[in-house]
Structures are given as C-alpha cells and as structure tokens.
Amino acid sequence: MKEILIGTAAAMFFAVTFILNRSMELSGGSWIWSSSLRFLFMFPFLLLIVLFRRSCTQVLQEIIQRPLPWFIWSFVGFFLFYAPLTYAAALGPGWLVAGTWQLTIVAGALLAPLFFRTAETPGGTVKVRHKIQGRALGISFVILGGVALIQLQQADQLSASSLVIGVLPVVIAAFAYPLGNRKMMEVCGGRLDTFQRVFGMTLASLPFWLLLGIFGLFTAGPPSSSQLLQTFIVAVCSGVIATTLFFIATDRVKKDQQKLAAVEATQSAQIVFVVAGEVLLLSAPLPNGLAVLGLIVIIFGMSLHSYGTFKTGTRTQYGNHSAKKERNA
C-alpha cells in the first residue's frame, strides 16, 4: 500500500530530529540553539505555505481575537515540548530519547479527563468530560514497560540522579505536546486546518524562541556554522517534509479506519531509523539485548494502540449504521 510507504518515509524524516540533535551535542553545540533555531527556520516555510494557500489572514484574525490562549497553549505545545527534548539529547543517545518519547501515548490517555465532548440530553446539549479508557491505558503501560527496558541499558553507565535528569525532560515534553495541541484544537474550534494551526502556534511561540536564542547568545555564544546547517536540516526534514508526508498519507486513507490505523502505526518505525542512523552516522554502540527487547515492546504496544483505534472506529460505524436502519424501519 502506497500510504504505508509514505507514512514510513515520514517516520524516517522525523527520525532526523533525534539523530541530528544528538550529533550537535556531541560536536559541542548547545541544546539552546538546537531547539530555538528549528522553529526560527520553520517559520518562513510555514509562512510560504499559508500564503500560497491564501489562508494567512484567517490565522492572524484568530490570534488577534484570542491572543492569551494562543500564547499559553503554543508555549505548552511547542516550547515545553521541544526545549526539554533537545535538552535530553545532551544527556543520552538519540534512540534512548526517541524511545522514551513514546511516553506521549501514555500521556494522551491520562489527559483525557481534561477535555469535554458535547452530548444531547432531555434537558438540552451538555458538556461531558471524557473518561480514561482502561484498555487504552493498559496498552500504554505495555509501552511504558518497553521504555523501562531501554533505560536499563544506561543504568550501569549513569547514576540514578543522572538517569532521572535525562528522563524527566522527556516526560515533561511527552505531556506538554498532546496537551498544548489538543487545547489549541479546542481554541480553533475547527475553523483552521492543520497547516494554519501549526503556523499559528509557531508564530505565537516565536517570542519564546527569540528569548531563548538571546539567552543562548550570552551563555553559550553564537551557534557554529555546522549547527546552523544541522538545525536547518532538522527544520526542513522534520518540521516541513515529515509533517507534510504524514498528512498526505493520513488524508489519503481518512475514510478507511483500518488503513488509517496502519498508517499511524508506521510512526513507531522512528525508533528503528534512529538506532540505524546513530550507528551508521555517529558510530554509536548498538543497543544491547534488553534495549532491543524494549524497542520491540514499544513497537508492539503502538501497533496494539492502532488496532484498538481501528476496532473502536469499526464498532462506531457499525453502531451508527444499525441505528440508521432502525430509524428507517
């Protein structure tokens, strides 16, 4: 299926983030520039996209109407996501960060009660708080077990405090990313498409990236030409190409829940690409037996998540179809 290949290609480009962030740290580059420059480089590309699609004015109007939510949730969804992630890259190999990053799935399940859906009742339309899905949370903890296994490879090389320092930023990022993005979807209320929302969040988070860059200028000095080039590559590969490919793949199969779940599952391949990339490009040691088992468990858990999404979608479609037949009868 073409969509599977497109989704896998997106995972490969997403993996560039973890590989080059680690490369920049090993060559002496500061994590401050690795994070801030990515979004500063992404902004012109996203601006060109929305200008080409003639949808920039609508984004600006949305931000002007509700500036505070845009700044708050863009800060959470982008700044508190990517700055801790690049900081973690300074403390461990990219595959370790990429593997731990899968905690975002657990975070997504746990954040459900913070959001509401509308429901029709005899008294009218009311907001109902989402519940934590036990099945989804159970599968998420399978992934958590895989994360624990890959951490064990580092246990004999790092102290407990160092390991916590390396993992904690990724945990923060794993919760901040889905929280910020879901809240922004609520703020947008379906009025903006994905490209517009990503552009708007990038624009709203620019002040924070500029401040971080100024801080880096005084504390770490200016970025080297090598770091400028590598962050530019990350911005293009991950911020533009990977996102576009993934949206193309999901858009092509959005009416088929089974195929959509399969495309989403391709993103677990990021970890495989990161391991291969670091071994080939950075001469990193291969993960040991426990870490390899952990990677397999993570991929298996993510596949279960996608399968569960497909089953839920199938039951929903069947239920709607049955209800429609009963009404027609």
UniProtKB/TrEMBL annotation:
Q: Name one Pfam family in it.
A: EmrE
Q: Which UniProt keywords apply?
A: Membrane, Transmembrane, Transmembrane helix
Q: What parts of the sequence cross the membrane?
A: 31-50, 70-89, 95-116, 136-152, 158-177, 198-221, 227-248, 260-284, 290-310
Q: Give the residue range of the signal peptide.
A: none
**Family matches, as InterPro entries:** EmrE (IPR032713)
Q: What is this protein called?
A: Multidrug resistance efflux transporter family protein
Please report the organism this UniProt entry assigns to the protein.
Alkalicoccus saliphilus
